[in-house]
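Field reference: sequence -> structure
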Amino acid sequence: MSRIAFGTYRISEHNPLHLQALKDALYAGVELIDTSTNYLDGGAEKAIALALRELDETLCENIKIVSKFGYIQGSNLQRHKQRAFEEVVEYTQECYHSIAKSFMHDQLTQSLERLERENIDCYLVHNPEYYLFDAIKKGIQKDSRLDEIYNRLFKVFIGLEEEVQNGRINSYGVSSNSFSLPNNSEEFLPYEDLLELAQKAADSLGIQKHNFTTIELPINLLEQEGLKCAKWAKENGLRLLVNRPLNAQKEKLMYRLADYAESREYYHYLNEILELCDNEILRPLFNLIEQLDDNKHKFGWIGDYEAFLFTQILPHIKNTLQKLEPQSQEALLQAIELFLQEYKKMVSYECAKHTKTALKEELKNSKGSMQEYALEFLLAKESIDYVLVGMRKSSYVYEMLEVENKSL
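Structure field:
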């Protein structure tokens, strides 16, 4: 049994590389898949279904699927605007949240349809602390807001116990980033009270023993506060899943704990795109590419670049392409795509160098790659059952499993 689990945060049903990576992971011994209703607006759950269609039935029987609910985004947000869900917290214009029992039932139905299954192993309440964020913003006193979130959790636990009895899930639990915070933080959700709430929910239905089995939270080299929660979970017989093993936060800055090789093809594609854009019509794009090249070492971590790509670079490119004839657009698009692929590799390489400098003390005992060191740190903890890793390429699957094998 592998303790590496397949995280599907950015896994798309439209990307054959993602589907192949998932299939290869399962054939190689990975047995747990973690997903959520909001991952690519349900696309990740659809990808799991597509991958499992091609696997041997015997292998599929041993696969555990853990999904989550709570976020109201994308198509769910459009549904909410047409007919409002219950107990909704409005976090941003594009992100609402609810853990209402009725919403949970609705989302589980959607999950099972996308996954093409009648049952999944576990369904998690996804980041219920969004209610706490909203209550803090509104100035609600700590005791009152904790009373209310416990009330909301109790009601949804009743619904989850009902779903166990209905056979749609085997168990349930909570995934929360707040479990990794110090217990004196205003946003901390006291996990020690969850089992009592679960048992009260079971008692209300005449069930002898609750079916709360699983806790999920972020733990990594830089964020170790969650190890206290892991210890509590193990002492209480719960399964513990760890997310964000390589995306770590320190002093409000994010770091990717992974090494990346410098692109060997970058300057070839850079020169190619600059030559194509060296004219009056494409001068804005020429200037953008030059600026990107000059600033490839200035991103703090790869997530900063990805945010900049979608909010600044791609809209700029789209505006420029609109000035061209369709035939010219196609040729330029291909060159842009090749350049951006190599540019991301260069940004990742520069970010890795920055991370090694910034985290010199934390990495002083590392003898291999950053990702190897970070993963071995977690696999050495007996309180951690599974480490969730996003693996969108088969090569990354094999790399992570090799690290696990070395740690045995």
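Note: The chain has 15 helices and 13 strands.
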